[in-house]
Design a protein that fits this description.
Blueprint (H helix, E strand, L loop, with lengths): L7 H7 L25 H8 L14 H14 L3 E5 L2 H12 L5 E5 L4 H10 L6 E5 L15 E7 L11 H10 L3 E5 L4 H4 L9 E5 L13 E5 L1 H14 L5 H11 L2 H20 L4 E5 L9 H7 L6 E6 L2 H10 L16 E3 L11 H6 L6 E5 L5 H14 L2
Parallel strand pairs: 2-3, 2-4, 4-5, 5-6
Antiparallel strand pairs: 1-7, 6-7, 8-9, 9-11, 10-11
Helix pairs in contact: 1-3, 3-9, 4-8
Bound molecules: pyridoxal-5'-phosphate.
Pyridoxal-5'-phosphate binds next to helix 4.
Length: 393
């Protein structure tokens, strides 16, 4: 049976680890730290990389292999390596593919921990970065130095839900011989496939939509075979590998990814449309709202708008915190991409370590609220947001 010509929904369900002699329908959990050999010759060949079999769970395991196989099929990647978290994936993609003296061109609107990784960790190893503004692509060329090796972006961005033109990015990276590394966490391959536009590497926090139920941490680095070879050997020697249990959960989660992304997107569009009509709200950002500055680009590269909506509440920082305190069932928590609707206030939390000027550059305004729209009934989500807007006045 070949699944190559099948659609994403089918691949996400039907790709699975080879059946054992027990003829299981659903893939079992392989809780084993190592694997045995038929004889000493097979063991030698395995260690010499002459045969491709599991050796040790830090390197590979049937559960993590299955998760990788599904993700490769969905993203259109040649290879991948799964990690214990999204940050481990991002770190591995930097550390494995760059060396001391290299510079990363980074879009300033990125996840808070990625900022910290670049500023506090990578710099200690002599890997520097240059921030570029998303709206200033016309001038990006000016920031390319002889040692610029990688271009790292998120689209849609966290938390401002800004959009970068992937087709343009792919050409720009190729023209300047940069490794294009895209954090595809917000869209997932069900809505957007950066590799189709020329991305060399795609990283994910699987903790978010890929799991989708707030249960496990995980990450993955995907891309061209020759690049992933370096990521593999970096990870094999440094040990950020995913646990078989988390990989097993994530493989199961992928079976419902397409359905979930559709519902997240439908609910988010309803919520964004409602917010745009509210007198308590200043600016709503959602890729599939015609008022989004990059609406046309979003429509071109995304199948649907995704689950994240950002808006500015009138009254700034204090009202933003009051709004969170006024919620009835929507959760106040650090995660996103969960079945449960999650509301956060980036200026006082995830981006709280940046000074106000840096916050504005990262697209974080004091009254900005980020909603990760869940899978509850849209009427109930909008109901909770409505009453919290009232009560926080
Ligand atoms: C959460 C997140 C990460 C980090 O992932 P973890 O699994 O928490 O380590 C990276 N990028 C984006 C866009 C995220 O939202």
């Amino acid at each position: 049976m070949s699944l190559e010509d099948k659609h994403d929904e089918t691949k996400a369900i039907r790709i699975q680890a080879e059946r054992s002699h027990n003829r299981e329908h659903s893939v079992p959990l392989y809780l084993t730290s190592s694997f045995i050999y038929e004889d000493a010759e097979q063991m030698r060949a395995a260690f010499a990389d002459e045969i491709d079999i599991n050796i040790y769970t830090r390197f590979s395991n049937p559960n993590s292999d299955e998760f990788v196989a599904k993700m490769c099929a969905l993203e259109g990647a040649e290879a991948g390596f799964p990690t214990a978290s999204g940050m481990a994936a991002i770190f591995a993609s930097f550390a494995a593919l760059l060396k001391t003296g290299d510079d990363i061109l980074v879009c300033r609107s990125i996840f808070g921990a990625t900022h910290t990784l670049l500023n506090k960790v990578m710099t200690r190893f002599g890997i520097t970065h240059t921030y570029v503004e998303l709206h200033d692509t016309a001038n990006w060329e000016k920031y390319i130095k002889p040692n610029t090796k990688m271009l790292f972006v998120e689209t849609p961005t966290n938390p401002g839900v800004e959009i970068i033109d992937l087709e343009w990015l792919g050409k720009f990276a190729q023209q300047h011989k940069l490794i294009l590394n895209v954090d595809n966490c917000f869209a997932t391959p069900m809505l957007q496939k950066p590799i189709e536009f020329g991305a060399d590497i795609v990283v994910h926090s699987a903790t978010k939509y890929l799991d989708g139920q707030g249960r496990v941490l995980g990450g993955i680095v995907l891309g061209k075979k020759e690049l992933i070879k370096d990521v593999y050997s970096f990870c094999r020697s440094t040990g950020p590998s995913i646990s078989p249990f988390n990989a097993w959960v994530l493989s199961k989660s992928l079976e419902t990814l397409s359905l979930r992304m559709e519902r997240h997107s439908e609910n988010a569009l309803k919520l964004a449309t409602f917010l745009e009509g509210s007198s308590e709200v200043e600016k709503v950002r959602y890729p599939f709202l015609p008022s989004h500055p990059s609406y046309a680009i979003a429509k071109k590269q995304m199948k649907m708008g995704g689950g994240i909506v950002a808006f500015n509440i009138k009254g700034g920082l204090e009202r933003g915190k009051r709004f969170l305190d006024s919620l009835d069932f929507c959760s106040m928590t650090a995660n996103l991409g969960d079945a449960k609707t999650i509301v956060s206030h980036p200026a006082s939390t995830t981006h709280g370590k940046l000074n106000p000027a840096e916050q504005l550059l990262a697209g974080v305004e004091p009254g900005m609220i980020r909603i990760s729209t869940g899978l509850e009934n849209a009427i109930d989500i909008i109901g909770d947001i409505t009453q919290a807007l009232e009560r926080s006045k």
